[in-house]
Specification:
177 residues; alpha/beta; Rossmann fold; globular
């Protein structure tokens, strides 16, 4: 039987805290067939659409975003943790399980009206993706879709993004946290 993207993802128990089942996509990235399958399946719903830029969320979204941008023939823009970009940036705070974080994008990274595909490896609570969407929209760009490898539906991130009017695509889902 042919492997699916989900088959390449390993689960690490009690990482980074007790009770967490960490969905590790590095095993997917390390396998050439698995990685190609992943990239092809992530971009498939958006092939033929007029996408100007792929935006990836730190850090695994960079790996995916670069590969997807290459396949779509677009550029790539990173959204990074605060203090990691060298130019003038705009920032967005968001809530974490225990506290808050800030992500940034260069203030000239996207042109107003640009059509953007947002990518990351995993959709959990939706906080990081929602912050990325806010940054993209503040620059006047439009989000065509949000693509992820893994959705953790029990954590509600898909609903958060869909309630923001986003088209959400995930290759697989895992129950639990």
């Amino acid at each position: 039987m042919a492997k699916t993207v989900r088959d390449y993802i390993r689960t690490i128990v009690d990482f980074p805290h007790d009770g967490i089942l960490f969905r590790d996509v590095t095993t997917l990235f390390a396998d050439p067939r698995g990685f190609r399958m992943c990239v092809d399946q992530m971009l498939h719903p958006y092939a033929g659409q007029d996408i100007d830029m792929v935006v990836g969320l730190e850090a695994r979204g960079f790996i995916l975003g670069g590969a997807i941008a290459h396949q779509l023939g677009t550029g790539f823009v990173p959204i990074r943790k605060k203090g990691q970009l060298p130019g003038t940036t705009i920032s967005q705070e968001y809530k974490l399980e225990y506290g808050e974080a800030i992500v940034e994008i260069h203030d000239d990274a996207l042109k107003p009206g640009a059509k953007v595909l947002l990518v990351d490896d995993l959709l959990a609570t939706g906080g990081t993706a929602a912050a990325g969407i806010a940054l993209i929209e503040r620059l006047g760009a439009r989000i065509t879709g949000c693509a992820f490898i893994v959705d953790l539906p029990d954590l509600g991130g898909r609903k958060v993004l869909e309630d923001m009017g986003m088209d959400v695509h995930a290759l697989c889902a895992f129950d639990g946290a």
